[in-house]
Each structure stands twice: as C-alpha cells, then as structure tokens.
Design a protein that fits this description.
Layout lengths: L17 H6 L1 H4 L5 H7 L18
Bound molecules: zinc ion (ZN).
C-alpha cells in the first residue's frame, strides 16, 4: 500500500483551505486522524465543511 506524504506544515483545526485538501487529499480526507479532524472543522469559502462535497467548489 502506498505511503502518502504528510504536509510539511499540517494545518490545524479551522485553518485548512480548499487548496490544502487538493494538495494533500489523503491526509485531510483520511478516514480518521488529525488531518481529517482539522478539515472537518474548516470551511471552504461557501461555508461547507471541507470534508463535505461542496457543490460550488471546482
Ligand atoms: Zn465551496
């Protein structure tokens, strides 16, 4: 199984941006873990949690 890289500077809760998720989807969209928790508590510019599928994000 592949070993996915962790971001150099992982963002904390509420600090994750959509671009971060795009760059490190395996870290921020993992089934569980600190990346997932941080992304869950962060929102895209449309007010959706980054772990949700925002209909307005590309
Ligand atoms: Zn969005």
């Amino acid at each position: 199984m592949a070993n996915y890289p962790i971001p150099d500077q992982p963002k904390g809760s509420g600090q994750v941006a959509y671009a971060d998720v795009q760059q490190h989807p395996h870290y921020y969209l993992a089934t569980s873990g600190p990346g997932r928790e941080a992304a869950e508590q962060s929102e895209c510019e449309h007010g959706y949690a980054l772990t949700a599928s925002c209909p307005n994000c590309p």
